[in-house]
Amino acid sequence: MTSLVAIVGPTASGKSELAISLAMAVGGEIINADSMQLYEGMNIGTAKLTDVEQRGIRHHLLSVWPVTKTATLAEFQQLALEVVTDVQSRGAVPILVGGSGMYVQSVVDRWTIPGTDPAIREALNAELERVGPKALYERLLLLDPSAASAILPTNGRRIVRALEVINLQGTFKAELPRELDTAGRVLIGMQIPRADMDDRISLRVDRMWSGGLTAEVEGLVAKGLREGVTARQALGYAQVLSWLDGEISEKQAMERTVQATKRFARRQESWFRRDPRVAWLPYDSSDLVDLAVSAVAATRR
């Protein structure tokens, strides 16, 4: 019996499209594991599928949080595992889809998420405000280079969390466990040449702008986007906010979104490449869906 399917890989590689076709073929339901698609109203900039594009396939964990909510891995994991259990109870196949590596991994391998310490967190956040993310990132590099490699040097929230965990337990386990459970799990990776990926990212950003990203961001500002510790850092949204604040031009906002997204896609690919269970399939294969269906069927024998 297939207990869980995960479709992973870099942004703009076609994960959502494959997930829908696979769900139609095997009787599946889709569980979002894109950290920014969890937010209500963040649609254009995250390439969130519309109701029409979902083609009648049931989707879970889309638009479930307000933009003011600070995301935590532990809370996402709890929500996702509850959905996995529910989908399985109805005889359907749960298909986890997304490029947020830690989000996917926490569900696939049912990670034990480290606890928190409010006092340590508060002290680190205060230091972040005082010295900025670069100084804290340099400390993280010294303490745990592996953890630092998976985090953007500008992502103060995640740097603080990593330092908090290191303070609590001496290390931040960003690497995969040595023994990986394969029973009933199917991990499908979208393999795409870097040049094709870069072209698709550039096209996606152009479509985001022409599709109304600026208006979407302005509307979300009224709903507290600037106060949202997690949501305001999303690719595209952070750059539009800088443009609206007069810090950069619109052209620069677009260019920086493209470059930041390309860097993010490379980190996504690097993360998932470390997992030997992932079956990498050519994103443009004419029989991509058939290959995915065969991978799922193999676990049912």
Instruction: Note the gap between the termini.
Output: 8 Å
Number of helices: 12
Mean pLDDT: 92
Helicity range = 40-55%
The gross shape turns out to be globular
User: Strand percentage, roughly?
Assistant: 5-15%
What radius of gyration results from the CA coordinates? 19 Å
- The structure class reads alpha/beta
Low-confidence stretches: none
Strand order of the largest sheet: 3-2-4-1-5-6
Task: Count the beta strands.
Answer: 6
SSE string, helices as H and strands as E? EHEEHEHHHHHEHHHHEH
Sheet having the most strands:
6 strands, parallel
Topology, element by element:
Elements: E1 4-8, H1 15-26, E2 28-32, E3 59-60, H2 73-89, E4 93-97, H3 101-108, H4 118-131, H5 133-143, H6 145-149, H7 156-169, E5 185-191, H8 194-210, H9 213-221, H10 237-244, H11 250-273, E6 279-282, H12 288-298
Parallel strand pairs: 1-4, 1-5, 2-3, 2-4, 5-6
Helix pairs in contact: 1-12, 2-3, 4-5, 4-7, 5-7, 8-11, 10-11
Descriptive report:
The chain is built from twelve helices and six strands. It has helices spanning 15-26, 73-89, 101-108, 118-131, 133-143, 145-149, 156-169, 194-210, 213-221, 237-244, 250-273, 288-298; strands at residues 4-8, 28-32, 59-60, 93-97, 185-191, 279-282. Strands 3-2-4-1-5-6 form a six-stranded parallel beta sheet, sandwiched between helices. Helix 1 (15-26) crosses helix 12. It starts with a strand and ends with a helix.
